[in-house]
Amino acid sequence: MPATTSSSVLRAHALAKTYGSGDAAVQALRDVDLEVAAGEFIVLLGPSGSGKSTLLNILGGLDVPTSGEVEFLGQRLTGGADDELTRYRREHVGFVFQFYNLIPSLTVAENVALVTDIARDPMPVDEALALVALTPRRDHFPSQLSGGEQQRVAIARAIAKRPQLLLCDEPTGALDYATGKLVLEVIARINRELGTTAVVITHNAAIAGMADRVVRLADGRIASVSRPERRLTPAELSW
Ligand code: ADP
Is 25 in the pocket of ligand 1 (CB under 6 A)? Predict the structure, then answer.
């Protein structure tokens, strides 16, 4: 199956990324073509070093490819000015990483407000916290929360600006099984209820059952693309 769909929000064509040069050059991505449909839930799988983070960072405008192009809603992101890429990232992309990167001296609500204060059309902080089921913890500090709760704050912060894209790099990598599932439930809910397009990196193949499409990377290339027959809820997954 080709890695393309009709109504795409993101379109990557012939992406290549090389880090370093000469003998030290590492080719992290080679000839990657991928279209992501609006509202789609994509899981990116592949062994460590296969290029998953590099691809996600380029799709989210955190990094630029060495060659090839990326379009967001028909607009080229590659080859433009840095401030255009920054604007794209700020307005349209929410990132969630393995570690939560919360500000320890700010409360949960204040961490989310950091984003809503500067976004163009944010949702109210309390609406974002309700979506991740953290309303009762709004005035707590990150150190008073479990890892899974801190990750849910990070997700609230990522979605509070109503981004079109939610890009998650190993969001459950630091969490235990049950907590990881709760975090996946939250990501699935945002995708379903807000229609936010989600791309989630994992090395855990069981999580692929949640996806509309599963893209497997190997050695910087797309090795396969598959579409699970039925999208499972995180509760139905086991690993
Ligand atoms: P994955 O997310 O699948 O683990 P990455 O995209 O992080 O893979 O890395 C792909 C390859 O690029 C790896 O060989 C990695 O060592 C290399 N790489 C990633 N980032 C850099 C960097 N900033 N400088 C040099 N090499 C890098």
Answer: no
